[in-house]
Design brief:
alpha/beta; FAD/NAD(P)-binding domain; D-Amino Acid Oxidase, Chain A, domain 2; 2 domains; eight-stranded mixed β-sheet; 10 helices; 18 strands; binds flavin-adenine dinucleotide
Length: 409
């Protein structure tokens, strides 16, 4: 994993040991021990498949263990712009996919009983100028016209202040409040879900996939720990998609994010928060131990950290990150940085993931390019791809995420 920063999540949870003995055969091999791959292993084990997940470094080593810990709804792009590009039915279908993810999350919470600091206090996005206010109103109206109600609520400056336990800056015009979205401890989530998968029969191994051969009747997966022969393969490498599926290089593009967390302080944020102080956006939450964790400010780097995956801190991004909280919350000037880290995201041109059969393959499926919003996709993606692998047909639910759609070019 490159130079090796460690996230707040990785500091505050214990990664389980991974098996080093790779089985020779499996019904399904899953590559990638982040939220998407672990979800696929979980659903496969639940369906009774002999499933082996391989991870090259550690569970939650990639984006999932280094993120903001928000489980939101919908796509990275706005509902209106998705409707404009792909039509209202597609925009609604994408929304439904992430709602399905929420249903699955609640099912797992009820049935698998692991702790990951899951809180449904809501998240909000601040509006800092008139254009943002107008845009949120237009989006809420478009969603309501499509029957999506109760998920996005507009709050003015005074209403926003009521959601935050410290004085807010005058530059905050209001916010869109999403009352049903969640915050989680991302590493505990991955470790817990992997544990549930193992209890249901999955094998979770340390190995790096080097290459694969996909034949009409089987897939051979070549790894650093030997070969496995499987009926099907799911590639859930997100920021590494270009290595796993070279055909998708340039389509699913690695983009690095920078994050820092402050030492624990008095509780001021119960909800997760976002804003566009820079054009690429910022997000922060206060964890259960009082640590405020903030990421964003990519726009302050000349390349916006595109085409970068190596785990390296960037001062052009880390320094402006430290300005965000004191600017928006004038009383929060005495925070002390405790951890800094980077994390590998993957972006696409239309801000939607690719979830599909790997181009030109028989039994190999791929998921990647979650555009910094994969937490509300992982479980539904795993479910859909396990179904796809078992029946060798593509479920309708992933139709919007086709690898050959027009908006990827
Ligand atoms: C800084 C940051 C903040 C974010 N904030 C949020 C947020 O608040 N909410 C949200 O919804 N999303 C957020 N995201 C995005 C979200 O974390 C991702 O969309 C999601 O975690 C992707 O999950 P994944 O399983 O596809 O990928 P990852 O978690 O990156 O997992 C991929 C795994 O594949 C492994 N791998 C790669 N190649 C191989 C190989 N050849 N062999 C074996 N293993 C391999 C990697 O080691 C890695 O562990 C953020 C991302 C970052 C980086």
């Amino acid at each position: 994993m490159g130079m090796g920063t460690t996230s707040f999540w990785q500091h505050t949870a214990t990664a389980p040991d991974l098996y080093s003995d790779l089985p020779k055969t499996a019904d399904l091999v899953v590559v990638g021990g982040g939220g998407v791959g672990v979800a696929a292993a979980y659903w496969a084990a639940r369906a009774g498949l002999r499933v082996t997940l391989i991870e090259q470094s550690a569970l939650a080593a990639g984006a999932t263990g280094r993120n903001g810990g928000f489980i939101t709804l919908g796509a990275a792009d706005s509902y209106l712009s998705l409707s404009a590009q792909y039509g209202r039915d597609a925009a609604r279908a994408i929304w439904q996919f992430t709602l399905r993810n929420r249903v699955l999350l609640n099912q797992i919470i009820a049935e698998d009983n692991f702790e990951f600091d899951h809180r449904v206090n809501g998240t909000l996005t601040l509006a800092l100028n008139d254009a943002e206010v107008r845009s949120w109103h237009a989006n809420i109206a478009a969603m309501e016209a499509d029957g999506i109600t109760g998920e996005y609520e507009w709050r003015d400056h005074v209403g926003t202040q009521k959601l935050i336990n410290t004085q807010i800056s005058e530059e905050i015009d209001g916010c869109v409040f999403k009352p049903n979205t969640a915050l989680v401890h991302s590493a505990k989530y991955v470790f817990g879900l992997a544990g549930a998968a193992v209890r249901r029969g999955a094998k979770v191994c340390i190995a790096q996939m080097r290459s694969f051969e996909d034949y009409a009747n089987r897939v051979i997966v070549h790894t650093s720990a030997g070969d496995i022969e499987a009926k099907s393969l799911i590639l859930a490498g997100n920021a590494w998609t270009d290595e796993l599926v070279p055909h998708l290089a340039g389509t699913v593009i690695p983009v690095r994010g920078q994050v820092l967390s402050y030492a624990p302080s008095a509780r001021v944020f119960d909800v997760g928060m976002g804003a566009s102080v820079t054009p690429t956006g910022e997000y922060w939450q206060q964890t259960l131990d009082g640590s405020i964790l903030i990421g964003g400010c990519r726009a302050d780097a000349p390349d916006r950290e595109w085409n970068l995956r190596a785990d390296v801190l960037r001062s052009e991004v880390q320094e402006p990150l430290e300005q965000v909280i004191p600017r928006l919350f004038p009383q929060l000037t005495n925070l002390t940085v405790a951890h800094r880290w980077s994390g590998p995201m993957a972006f696409t041109k239309d801000y939607l993931p690719v979830i599909d059969k790997a181009p030109g393959q028989h039994h190999t499926w791929v998921a990647g390019g979650f555009n910094g919003h994969g937490m509300c996709y992982g479980l539904a993606t795993g479910e859909a791809l396990v179904h796809a692998a078992m029946h060798n047909t593509k479920p309708d639910a992933i139709a919007p995420f086709a690898a050959d759609r027009s908006g990827l070019n």
